[in-house]
Amino acid sequence: MVLSLTPGIAVVFLVILVALVLFATEPVPIDITAIGIMVALMVLEPWTRVSPAEGVSGFASSATITVLAMFILSYGVQRTGVVQILGRKIAAFTKDDETRQLGATIGVVGSISGFINNTAAVAILMPMVTDLAHEGNTSPSKLLLPLSYASMFGGTLTLIGTSTNILASDLAARLGEQNPAAFGDLHAFSMFEFTSLGVLVSIVGTAYLMTLGRWLTPARIPPEDDLTEEFELEEYLTEVVVRGDSPLVGRTVGDALADIDFDVDLVQLVRGGQSFAEPLGPKEIQADDIFAVRTDRDTLLDLIDAEGLALVPNVDVTEEELETANEERNLVEVVVAPRSSLMGKTLATANFRERYDATVLALRRGPEFIRKRMDHAELQVGDTLLVYATPDSISRLNVNRDFIVAQEVERPDYRESKIPLAVGIVAAVVALAALDVLPIMVSALAGALVMVVTGVLEPPEVYDAVEWEVIFLLAGVIPLGIAMEETGAANLIADLLVLSADFFPPIAVLGLFYVVTAVLTNIVSNNASVVLMIPVAAEAAVQLDANAFAFVLAVTFAASTAFMTPVGYQTNLFVYGPGGYKFTDYVRVGAPLQILFAITTTLGIAAIWGVTP
C-alpha cells in the first residue's frame, strides 16, 4: 500500500531536491552543501524528526571516523615513495608498447585501489602514467581515462577501497540494528565480504577497457615530446629584443609591466648570454635585453610598436630551448585538484606568480586552450596549467593539496626505509578487521596511530593527510538518511519503485536500483547517492520479500562506479584536463561500461547471494 504524502515527507523531499540541485551545480563546495543539509534538518525538526543529537551524529559515525583513519593510512604509504618505485619498474617493463602500458595501468591502479583510497591512488599514479605515455610515444588520453575507471572498480574489491563502501556498511548496520524485524539480514560489511563480486566486475571492466573501451577512448592529446607543441604554443611564444631607444630602458620589469596594458607574460630574460626567469620584477631593463614572451600575434605587433621592441628573427621558443637556456627551470603540467581552494579564483587574485615563483604559459580546460587573458580566467577543477618554474617551486606545487603535478617529481624526503613498516601496518589493519579481531574503525585508527609512533608520518602530517571536505560531506549527509527513515520518505519512494514488480521479476527490480543509483551518482556525490538510496533499497526489498543485503549491495556498487560524466566521481575530474577530454568522451566510453556493469553486478549478486531468501 502506497503511503500518503505527509507534511514531514514533503519537507524531506524539498530538502533532497534543493540538495540535489546544489550538488549538481556546485554554486558552493559540496561539503558546505552537506553541512547546510544537516542544519536544515535540525532546524526543521518538527517535520524531519531529526533531533540535534541525530543531526550531528554523522561526526561520531563509525563510517566518518574510519574514512578519516584510512586517509591517514593512505598518506603514510604515499610518503614512503613505494608507488613511485613501482612506477619506475613498470616503465622499464612497458617501454613503448601501448598494450602493455594500458594493461599495467589498469592492473596496478585496480590492485592498489582495493587497499588505499582510490582517489589517492589516482592522484599518486597520474604523474607516473603521464610520464609513461610521453616516454612511450603514446597519447596520455589513451591511458588516463582507463586509470580513473580502473580505480573505481578496483575500489569495489574490499571494504576499505572507497569511502562509499565504508559509508554503505555503516548505513546497512544501522538499519539492521534499528529494525531487526524488517532488516534482520542487514549488517556491517566484513573486509572481503563482496570481494568475489569485486573481482568479477574488475575482470569484466579490464576486458572492456583492453578491447572495445580502448577503441572508443580518443587520443585527444597528441603524443608530443615537447609540451609547447602539446599546448599548441607555437604562435604564442616568441622572443623580442629591447631597442636602444625603447622607453622601457632604465625601468624595472615590474614597473614596466604594471604600466603596459597588454596581455603579455615575460617568461625569460637573456642578457649577455645568461638567462634569468622569475622573479624578473626587480630587474632593470637594459638595451639589447632579449625577452621570451607569451602573447598572441596581434598583441605582439602592438607591443613592438608601442614599447620600442624588435622581433628576434627565426626563433622558435620550444620546451628544449627554455629548459636548455635556463637549466634551473622546467616545464610541467599542473592540474587544479578537486576541492581546491583556488576554485573560482583567478591566477591574478591567487597571486600565483608571486606565491610560487612560476609563470603559467597556457591553460587547458578539457579539449579547449586558454592562452589570452589567463590571469583573469576563473579556475575550475580539472584545469591543466602549463607552468614554467624552478624545481623548488614545482616541489612546492607537488605537496600543495590544491594541485596535482602531472609529471613525476623527485622528492628527496621520501621515507623509503619505512616502506616495509608502512605496508606491514596496512596489512595488519586489513588482517585484524578481516579476522574480526577488531572492528575496522578500531584497527584503522590503531594503524594510523602506529604510523605516527613509528615515524612513517610526522604528527603535523596527520592533519594534512585528511581530506576534511570528505569528512564534512559524510557528516552532513548521514542525517539525511535518518530523516528519510523517520518520516517514511524512504518507504514512499520504495513503494513507487516496487510498482515495477507488477511487470518485472525481482532480479529486474534489483537491476533497476543499480541503474537509478548509477544515474544519480553521475550527477551528484557518490556518498550522497548511497545515503539517499540505501534506505529506499532496503524498504523495497522488504516489500518484495527479497534479500535486503542484495539490494543494498547493488546500490553500493552502483555508487562506486560512475563512468558517464566528469563530475560523477572525483577521479574522473582528476584526468579531465590532463587527458584533454570532452564531456561526451565520458558518455561514449563510460555508457557501455555502465550498462555492462549493471548486467554483471545484478547477475553476480543473484548468483552469489540470491535475490530472494
TrEMBL record:
InterPro entries the record matches: Cit_transptr-like_dom, DASS-Related_Transporters, RCK_C, RCK_C_sf
Keywords on record: Membrane, Repeat, Transmembrane, Transmembrane helix, Transport
Topology of this chain in the membrane: Multi-pass membrane protein
UniProt cross-references to PANTHER family, sorted A to Z: BASIC AMINO ACID ANTIPORTER YFCC-RELATED
Transmembrane annotation, as ranges: 6-25, 32-50, 56-77, 147-168, 188-210, 421-453, 496-517, 549-569, 589-611
GO cellular component, one term: membrane
Every RCK C-terminal domain range: 224-309, 319-403
Major place of residence: membrane
Pfam families per UniProt: CitMHS, TrkA_C
Organism this protein belongs to: Halorussus aquaticus
Record keyword Transmembrane helix present: yes
Location in or out of the cell: Membrane
Protein name: SLC13 family permease
